[in-house]
Amino acid sequence: MIILYGFGQGFGLPEKSPFVTKTEVQLKMAGLTYRKEKAVPPASPKGQLPYIVDDAERIADSTFIRAHIEGKYGFDFDAPLNLQQRAQAWAFERMIEHHVYWALVGARWVDPENFAKGPAHFFDAAPEHLREKLREDAQFRVAENYLISGLGRHAPEEGIDLALRSLFALSVQLGDKPYLMGDTPCGTDATAFGALSGILTPFFVSTLREETEKFRNLTAYVDRMMLQYYPDFAWIPLREAA
Q1: Strand 34-38 to strand 2-6: parallel, antiparallel, or no bridges (unpaired)?
Q2: Per-residue DSSP letter, 235
């Protein structure tokens, strides 16, 4: 059986990490049996979550996990797509993971109130005399990576504007379809759902969330995906959370 290692439920989400969510949804899409365990990033071969253990093999990074599933189990996440659509799906995935994701990081880790409410609690189990230093170090490292990503070099309102351009592109691509590329979910839907649900969770308050809520097809898409892949999770649709 495959073992998926992630952060676990929290922040009003079935999984705290967008990338772990991506992998978990793809395991569900592929119809593979798996068990989920909590872990911390240093336990991973690449120092980040998710990673999986499949028989004696350990695979880290959500994109390489997907490749492993496709190679070992013969499941094509993009089976309904033609060559051009496959290229478009990959481009949208890169946009989500290298742009939209960093907007989420800014709202969750750099904003002091959201950090105190959410990520700071990752270190609650640490020895009391180390706890605050660990929190400060982690927030500094994430903020540094946020700066390196490019989005953190801009004023907050400029960063939001750039993120909204990417979200607008996703909204236009989705249109009135049930999934990003058509009537059938593909691999990129798992990526989009992980990032969008992370932004839209009512747990955090941010300008990014408020602006994203205005894309009604994206909020309906998250509600739909949540019901499909996490039917037992008590997700609060945004129309009910106000």
Answers
A1: parallel
A2: -
Helix (H, G, I), strand (E, B) or coil at 110: helix
Give yes or no for a contact between 40 and 6, defined as CB atoms under 8 angstroms apart: no
Interatomic CA distance for residues 92 and 169, integer angstroms: 9
Kindly state whether residues 190 and 236 are assigned to the same domain. Answer: yes
d(CA 138, CA 132): 10
Number of separate domains in the chain: 2
Residue 39: both structure tokens together? 């872990």
| One-letter identity of residue 174 | L
User: Are 19 and 49 in contact, with CB atoms under 8 Å apart?
Assistant: yes
Q: Is the pTM of this model over 0.90?
A: yes
Instruction: Using alpha carbons, select from 70, 46, 56, 47 the residue that is nearest to residue 3.
Output: 56
- Domain end position, chosen among 38, 57, 77: 77
Which helix H or strand E contains 128, and what residues bound it? helix 128-149
Give strand pairing partners of 35.
Answer: 3
Strands 34-38 and 57-60: unpaired
8 A C-beta contact, residue 97 and residue 90:
no
CATH of the domain at 29: 3.40.30.10
| Segments forming the whole domain that contains residue 145 | 80-242
**Of 3-7, 57-61, 128-132, 216-220, the least confident:** 128-132
Question: Which H or E element spans position 54?
Answer: strand 51-54
Place 238 in a pLDDT band, splitting at 50, 70 and 90.
low
Q: What is the pLDDT of residues 69-85, one digit of tens each?
A: 999 999 999 999 999 99
Q: Which two tokens stand for residue 13?
A: 């989400």
Select from 30, 49, 77 the last residue of a domain.
77
